[in-house]
């Protein structure tokens, strides 16, 4: 169980949501007071912490925070892994793993877009315009290789079925 888990998280989250609505109402349409903005930022941060406290295990945290990233990567044809952490993992390790996967997908998307733009312009991409990919463990590299090999095998199987 994550040390940040709080069974009372929903009540705290709702309380902070109500407080944020009240502050938004007080701010109105005019230029807000700096003290109100500071209070708003503090309450919004506390609301995020209350929401993070809803996750009992590292895997629940990963499930929620990576679901959209992994779906988007899959639609774009980008390989991304679903990290597994031991049940004893703390919140910092969990956040680091989520950041690593998000960083990987973002870097691959950026590099693809830069290569496409450079190809349309008829130039070679400058190495400084490409993002370096995060270093992966050998197990992650092996999983990526298996995914690629399996994908090629699936594509060959689909092509052979279409020909016959």
Automatic annotation (TrEMBL):
The superkingdom of the source organism is Bacteria
> What protein name applies here?
Uncharacterized protein
Q: Can you name the source organism?
A: Novosphingobium marinum
């Amino acid at each position: 169980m994550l040390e940040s888990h709080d069974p009372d998280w929903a009540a705290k989250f709702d309380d902070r949501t109500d407080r944020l609505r009240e502050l938004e109402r007080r701010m109105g349409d005019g230029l807000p007071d700096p003290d109100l903005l500071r209070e708003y930022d503090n309450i919004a941060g506390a609301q995020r912490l209350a929401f993070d406290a809803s996750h009992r295990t590292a895997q629940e945290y990963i499930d929620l925070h990576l679901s959209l990233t992994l779906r988007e990567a899959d639609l774009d044809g980008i390989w991304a892994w679903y990290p597994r952490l031991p049940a004893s993992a703390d919140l910092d390790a969990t956040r680091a793993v989520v950041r690593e996967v998000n960083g990987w997908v973002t870097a691959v998307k950026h590099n693809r877009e830069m290569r496409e733009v450079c190809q349309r312009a008829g130039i070679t991409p400058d190495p400084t315009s490409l993002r370096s990919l995060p270093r992966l463990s050998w197990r992650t590299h092996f999983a990526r290789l298996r995914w690629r090999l399996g994908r090629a095998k699936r594509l060959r199987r689909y092509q052979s079925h279409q020909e016959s």
